[in-house]
Amino acid sequence: MLVDHGRHDSSTPSPDSTRLDIADPLRSIRTLFSIPAPVYLCGNSLGPQPLSVRTALQTHLDKWASLGVAGHFTTPDPWADIEVAAAAAVAPIVGAKPGEVAIMNSLTVNLHLMLTAFYRPHGDRKCIIIEDGAFSTDEYALQTHITARGLDPASVIVRLQPRTGERLLRDQDILSTISDLSAASRLALVLLPGVQYYTGQLFPLAEACRVAREAGVPIGFDLAHAVGNIPLSLHKWGANFAVWCSYKYLNAGPGAVGGVFIHEKHAAEDLPRHAGWWGHDRTSRFLMPRDFIPQRGAPGFQLSNPPVFAIVPVIEAARVFERAGGMEAVRRKSVKLTAFLERLIEKKLGGAVEIVSPRDEHRRGAQLSLAVERVRRWEGGDMHAFNARLEKRGVVCDVREPDVLRVAPAPLYNSFADVELFVDVLAHALGELPPCK
Asked: pTM here?
């Protein structure tokens, strides 16, 4: 349970943070959220609730109560079309045309569907590139999908690794691996994150698309930590596909419906797929024909009718980004927030923590990953117990083993004063630790 002990006496907002907050053009957007803690820096795990979600859900609950099945076709917001409205709302956030987006399923389900469509091993071209230390669901999906194809994951998956002594991947190493494996006629697919979940590193997405396209290899992205975090131009870049969840920076709620992007260049292709009735041509869907006729583009990969009460929060969350002026405006503040956080860490914490994330603010998203070795060396080495010290002072971030705090100041609802208070609380908590043995 979070306890709000307010600010420490030494943590009154400084003139710097006050000046930045006054000048912030997005400062009023914060009022559109119900924020569950005085300093909530955990939007990389679960974003807070947009206030409009409760009202919108109640509207649809009332509609269900009064209309029943007729709600599927009764305006406004007929349920039979609600996923179309969701795709239109999210498309600008990912830099896509509405017909290239489908709001459906979860990220992992969508990744399996995209692997079916775009992983086409033949001859020696079997390899899939991912980053070492990818989020576990990507590993599980790839390994089981490869096994189901009768192949050996150990010989198929090529993991990008940092150079010896480094924590981060170099852009040139990512791009050269794509080129080299393709030139050796071994590469079948590239799957990269938009932003790496552990380090916060922003990957060279546009350049990777260019190199993959020149190599004639399909490329897809896991955008779980990128959607609502960084500007994306999936259509312009020419990515073949992308998948994402909606509960992190998009703020659509726990377990919110995910999304998929398929470039319009594939719209007329008869891609391999697992089909369901909601992906069938809209004009004859309710005629229940025996043979499947897919909708063009991403909507043709839909399986079942949309879960209305899970999609409504996605629409409401996307509207907040529109009110904020779009992703470019969000990103401008994000860069300033992480730069301010970095400066305060260097000023107030010195060598007590190591910033794992890229030091160039343009090569990271909204997250700074902080390695706190002193906690690991402290008797017990329990990062979760240390994080509990922060929570007792009203600060919420999260822990990744063995010694990393992930801190994500989100520009829609975090202030520069939030960032300053976090650093003060962190310094205070570190000062409470007993001496290292």
From this structure: 0.95
Residue 437 has pLDDT above 60, yes or no: no
Cα(263)–Cα(234) distance, rounded to whole angstroms?
A: 8
Taking the C-alpha atoms of residue 71 and residue 31, their distance in angstroms, rounded to an integer, is 32
**Known binding positions:** 107-108, 222, 225, 247, 277, 305
The strand pair at 395-396 and 39-40 is best described as: parallel
pLDDT of residue 382: 85
Whether 3 has a pLDDT exceeding 50, the answer reads no
Residue numbers in the known binding site for pyridoxal 5'-phosphate are 107-108, 222, 225, 247, 277, 305
- CB burial class (10 A; 0-12, 13-18, 19+) of residue 304? exposed
Q: Mean pLDDT of all residues in the chain?
A: 95
CATH of the structural domain 77-324, one choice from 3.40.1550.10, 3.40.640.10, 3.40.50.1000, 3.55.40.20: 3.40.640.10
**Residue 121 in 3-state DSSP?**
coil
Each residue's pLDDT tens digit, 44-80: 999 999 999 999 999 999 999 999 999 999 999 999 9
The CATH code belonging to domain 9-46+326-432 is: 3.90.1150.10
Domain extent listing, the chain:
9-46+326-432, 77-324
